[in-house]
Amino acid sequence: MNRGSFIRNSLLMLGAGPFAKALKIDRNGLLNARLGEQLHEAMYYRPTQHGVKCTLCPEICGVHATKEGNCRVRYFSNGKLYTRGYGNPVHVAVTKPEKVSISSYLKGQDVLLIGTGGCNLHCLFCNVSAASQGNYGDLKTQSLQPDEVIELALRKSVKGIVYGYTEPVVFYEYMLHIARLARQKGLKNLMTTNGYINPEPLSGIIEYLDAVVVDVKGFSDATYQRLASGIIVPVFDTIRMLHSRNVHLEISHLLVPGWTDDLALLQKMGEWMTKEGLQQVPFHINRFRPSYKLHQLQAATDDQLQAARRVLQSAGLLHTDTVLS
Ligand code: SF4
Fold first, then answer.
1. Which ligand 1 atom is at minimum distance from the Cα of 55?
2. Mutate which of 46, 48, 61 to test ligand 1's pocket (most atoms within 8 Å of Cβ)?
3. Coil, strand, or helix at residue 213?
4. Quick check: CB of 170 below 6 Å from ligand 1?
5. How far apart are CA 239 and CA 196, in angstroms?
6. 21 — phi, psi (to 5°)?
């Protein structure tokens, strides 16, 4: 029996009986305990009549006893909102910034990449869908508290920590606590994000962020909704705020044929960045390869990537490149 089945069976056995009621163990609290996590309360939420509303990201999920957040990380238990993403990463590895689309910060240096399960968007092309879209209880996680992450980073002699692999917004509290400790130890904090976060939590962590790459999924609300189940305006707000606070900023974009390769929309994106004074910000156009729910599509061609690059350059962007891998 795998761990997911074990948890589910345990829930059924205990949750259905008087024992669970007597101990006031609800389903989510029990799952959490089985995962071996420390209960960790979320930072951004407010109470509602039937549960809470999470205010971390623009989804503003209503979360209650029978419904977890859209990211599957945040859940309700005994009147509070908790996060499963604290101290339970699914991925920890030494890498280089340029391998996670940060081309001009700590280039060539070792950094520690860390990510948990879950995501607040649901991209049809996600290449880590098992971790981002699966049930948390089914994921293979390891127990690693923030101070242990720092110890590991120092032991590996890396220059910084990258919050990414999956979407770091959904493990906000974990990221924040690691980032504070990292800053104290002279380690840099890098983040690869979809930028889908509300202004208040972003402003709560921005002082610890040294470099951020925002992955812009498309250039219209219609594309965002169909491709990623989100909207675009909060992403633009995030880009503006990072730039205004002098965080090293880069943009990445996956060129998905038939979905995000509309040259007129790319032109508008370039013009918007130029208008916002973002001409110097590196813009990486990544090649789409068939994946997840878009496995039937063809990979983007060199010609499509180059056409996109020329449009962005003509709109005034000074540092564009194509990533062919
Ligand atoms: S972080 Fe998760 S629970 Fe909170 S609003 Fe976003 S998707 Fe919903």
1. 5
2. 61
3. strand
4. yes
5. 10
6. -60, -45
Amino acid at position 251, single letter: I
Q: What percent of the chain has pLDDT over 90?
A: 83
Cα–Cα dist 158/87, whole Å: 20
CB atoms near residue 23 (< 10 Å): 11
Tokens of residue 82, six digits: 């908790």
Q: Tell me how far apart the alpha carbons of residues 15 and 33 are, in angstroms, rounded to a whole number.
A: 13
**pLDDT mean over 184-190:** 98
Which amino acid would we find at residue 126? C
Is residue 84 lining ligand 1, measured as CB closer than 6 Å?
no
Averaged pLDDT, 201-212: 98
How does pLDDT run across 284-293, given as a tens digit for each residue?
999 999 999 9
pLDDT band at 325 (very low <50, low <70, confident <90, very high): low
pLDDT, tens digit (0-9, with 9 covering 90-100), for 117-147: 999 999 999 989 999 998 888 899 999 999 9
Q: Give the residue, out of 41, 44, 52, 57, with the most ligand 1 atoms within 8 A of its beta carbon, to mutate for a pocket test.
A: 57
Statement: residue 294 has pLDDT above 60: yes
- Ligand 1 atom nearest the C-alpha of 172 is 1
Give the nearest ligand 1 atom to 70 CA: 7
Cβ(114)–Cβ(120) below 8 Å: no
